[in-house]
């Protein structure tokens, strides 16, 4: 039995994301005043994705609680829709995008932080908020995967959705550069156009790998748990 019910964990995680988003939006940074505002940064987009995802999780928990014992087929149908949306968001957005943001940020930060997070930002963003945006996303999503089984879509459909998100964000970055003449991330200012194409292609492949990783990890956790339960049941019989 879990020390803390998964429903309580989801509420706590949701509230933490609200706090992070509110504190981030309250920062008076020059980048927030330029074209695209916060929405040009993948970190901010990911925070919104995580907040919406855990909001859907909490709503699903509440709906499940309210429909428990109910014989209404309409309520059951609405609950199944919510569960389907929750599982799709986990598979296609929350896990691959969240893991991508954490791993890419810290890999580039450790290599040369000025490529992705210039020292000037230390004057605006406190350390705790930086970790809230770029670190805690990973343990939060792992906790969710460990406490709740999620039904993944078929792999081709999932990969198409992830690719669509990745290509959409790349096109959005290119549009911001077209309008402002400045790339969202300093790294992109330092590489040639051909290198940018290769870089974007590699990142798209990487986020697809993270999708498959999430699918495999989800199956490993829950298929393994099912085997243990079946073994314990057989011993009891």
From TrEMBL:
A Pfam family cross-referenced in the UniProt record is Far-17a_AIG1
Q: Could you name the domain of life of the organism this protein comes from?
A: Eukaryota
Specify where it is mainly localized.
membrane
Sorted keywords for this record are:
Membrane, Transmembrane, Transmembrane helix
The cellular location(s) given in this protein's UniProt record come to:
Endomembrane system
- Catalyzed chemical reaction(s): 13-(9Z-hexadecenoyloxy)-octadecanoate + H2O = 13-hydroxy-octadecanoate + (9Z)-hexadecenoate + H(+); 13-octadecanoyloxy-octadecanoate + H2O = 13-hydroxy-octadecanoate + octadecanoate + H(+); 12-(9Z-octadecenoyloxy)-octadecanoate + H2O = 12-hydroxyoctadecanoate + (9Z)-octadecenoate + H(+); 13-(9Z-octadecenoyloxy)-octadecanoate + H2O = 13-hydroxy-octadecanoate + (9Z)-octadecenoate + H(+)
Q: Where are the transmembrane segments?
A: 7-27, 47-67, 88-108, 128-145, 157-179, 191-213
Q: List cellular component terms (GO).
A: endomembrane system; membrane
Q: How does it sit in the membrane?
A: Multi-pass membrane protein
Q: Which family does it belong to?
A: Belongs to the AIG1 family.
Designated name of the protein: Androgen-induced 1
């Amino acid at each position: 039995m879990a020390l803390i019910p998964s429903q309580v964990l989801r509420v706590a995680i949701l509230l933490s994301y609200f706090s992070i988003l509110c504190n981030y939006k309250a920062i008076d940074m020059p980048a927030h005043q330029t074209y695209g505002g916060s929405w040009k940064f993948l970190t901010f987009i990911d925070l919104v994705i995580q907040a919406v995802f855990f909001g859907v999780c909490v709503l699903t928990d509440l709906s499940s609680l309210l429909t428990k014992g109910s014989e209404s087929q309409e309520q059951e149908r609405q609950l199944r829709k919510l569960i389907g949306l929750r599982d799709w968001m986990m598979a296609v957005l929350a896990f691959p995008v969240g893991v991508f943001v954490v791993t890419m940020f810290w890999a580039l930060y450790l290599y040369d932080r000025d490529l992705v997070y210039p020292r000037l930002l230390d004057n605006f963003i406190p350390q705790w908020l930086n970790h809230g945006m770029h670190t805690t996303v990973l343990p939060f999503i792992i906790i969710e995967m460990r406490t709740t089984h999620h039904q993944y879509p078929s792999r081709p459909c999932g990969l198409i959705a992830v690719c669509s998100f990745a290509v959409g964000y790349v096109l959005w970055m290119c549009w911001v550069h077209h309008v402002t003449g400045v790339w969202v991330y300093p790294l992109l200012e330092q590489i040639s156009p051909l290198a940018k194409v290769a870089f974007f292609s590699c990142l798209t492949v990487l986020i697809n790998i993270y999708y498959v990783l999430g699918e495999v990890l989800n199956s490993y956790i829950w298929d393994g748990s099912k085997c243990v339960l079946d073994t314990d049941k057989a011993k009891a019989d």
